Amino acid sequence: MYSFDVHTVYSMCVSMYSAVWSREETTERNYYTRYHNMSEVRENTHTQHTHTQRMSECTYLLLVVVLQIGLSSTGRKKAIWMDCGIHAREWIAPAFCQYFVREVTSKTDTKVNEMMKNLDFYITPVLNVDGYIYSWHNESTRLWRKSRSPGTGGCTCYGTDLNRNFYANWGMVGVSTDCCSQTYCGTKALSESEARAVTDMLGKMREDVLAFLTIHSYSQLILVPYGHPNISAPNYDELMEVGLGAAKAIKAVHGMDYTVGTSPDILYANSGSSRDFARLIGIPLSFTFELRDKGEHGFELPEDQIQPTCEEAYAGAHHIITYAHDKAFYSYAATVTATLWTTLLAAWVSSATLL
């Protein structure tokens, strides 16, 4: 993992990403209703980090930005992880991560303020940076999915599916060993630097992470672990209950239906996903969001659907995060109170017996 001064990394990115598919200039007013290339994403992230007091740190994994967002605290805080853009062509995902950052750092929502005191958000607007840049190169590369790592062993094809490269049941189902395939899982688990960076960072903080959210498109789904059809999460019932609550919150915004379940049950079997990795290392609440739509536009979701998609997805994420927060802090407080009363009652009974 490499860390740089934010201004140094930003200037490196400006020069590196200058030759991308050009877009019209955007303003703050319409920024969150447009898709943005990597240079614009970096500039927006840099601006948010500079001007928002709630952002306490900005870390760089290779050239992947991870924003740490929360209110200052002297104690150890819990965490929520969210990443977007693991698949390059799913442009609505990075759009949502940027929208989510804007919402949690600008709202006067009492619940958000409360949660900011107790936990930090770790947000990765674009995880697959090289792939995302390539998807903006021209119209012929728009639907690029994988990373851009060069092939090995004489293979002339580029890229690995980063969401098949984590060590959770790696290489078992729903993957390809053909390096030219869209679902190529790599030469081994964690062969890709992006997957290793996430694994290293989450491995160090896993005891504090309450929920893991990875944002994708499309199909309007909320997926719970595991992608392998013969493996179930130990808290499957809880995951389904929370996921169904998130789907209900989403539907209340614009009436969109999201289906909840494991990937084998409602989509297809797969292994090596970041969602399954998070659950495997002990993060209790791990979900994949597959945002709009259900196939009419697919990965090329029109820009007039960005804002409504982000609004409903925010409601779903807010539900999950609120549940995770309240379970950690209110359940703990209730347990402590119950233990205290039990101790006091036992002491009173003992005294009464002596009398």
Automatic annotation (TrEMBL):
GO terms for biological process: proteolysis. One of its GO terms (cellular component) is extracellular space. Its cofactor is Zn(2+). The chain crosses the membrane at residues 329-349. PROSITE patterns: CARBOXYPEPT_ZN_1, CARBOXYPEPT_ZN_2, PEPTIDASE_M14. GO terms for molecular function: metallocarboxypeptidase activity; zinc ion binding. The keyword Protease applies. The active site is at E290 (proton donor/acceptor). Keywords: Carboxypeptidase, Hydrolase, Membrane, Metal-binding, Metalloprotease, Protease, Signal, Transmembrane, Transmembrane helix, Zinc. Residues 31-324 form the Peptidase M14 domain. The keyword Cytoplasm does not apply. Belongs to the peptidase M14 family. This is Carboxypeptidase O.
